Amino acid sequence: MPRARIGLWLSLTLRSTRSLCRAGFMEGQPQGPPNPAGMENGTEPCGEERASEAQETTVTEGAAKIAFPSANEVFYNPVQEFNRDLTCAVITEFARIQLGAKGIQIKVPGEKDVQKVVVDLSEQEEEKAELKKGANLAPGDQPRTAAVGEICEEGLRVLEGLAASGLRSIRFAREVPGLQSVVANDASARAVDLMCRNVQLNAVAHLVHPRQADARMLMYQHQRASERFDVIDLDPYGSPAPFLDAAVQAVSEGGEATLTWAQSRARGFRRILTAQAFLAGLLCVTCTDMAVLAGNSGETCYSKYGAMALKSRACHEMALRIVLHSLDLRANCYQRFVVPLLSVSADFYVRVFVRVFTGQAKVKASASKQALVFQCVGCGTFHLQRLGKASGASGGRVKFSAACGPPIGPECEHCGQRHQLGGPLWAEPIHDLDFVGRVLQAVSTNPGRFHTSERIQGVLSVITEELPDVPLYYTLDQLSSTIRCSTPSLLQLRSALLHAGFRVSLSHACKNAVKTDAPSSALWDIMRCWEKECPVKRERLSEASPAFRILSVEPRHMLIQVRSRIFPLPLPFCPCPGLAPSLPSWTTAVGSPRPASGPQPLPTAATVHR
Ligand SMILES: C[S@@+](CC[C@H](N)C(=O)[O-])C[C@H]1O[C@@H](n2cnc3c(N)ncnc32)[C@H](O)[C@@H]1O
Ligand SMILES: [Zn+2]
Question: Where is the signal peptide (predicted)?
Answer without folding.
Answer: 1-19
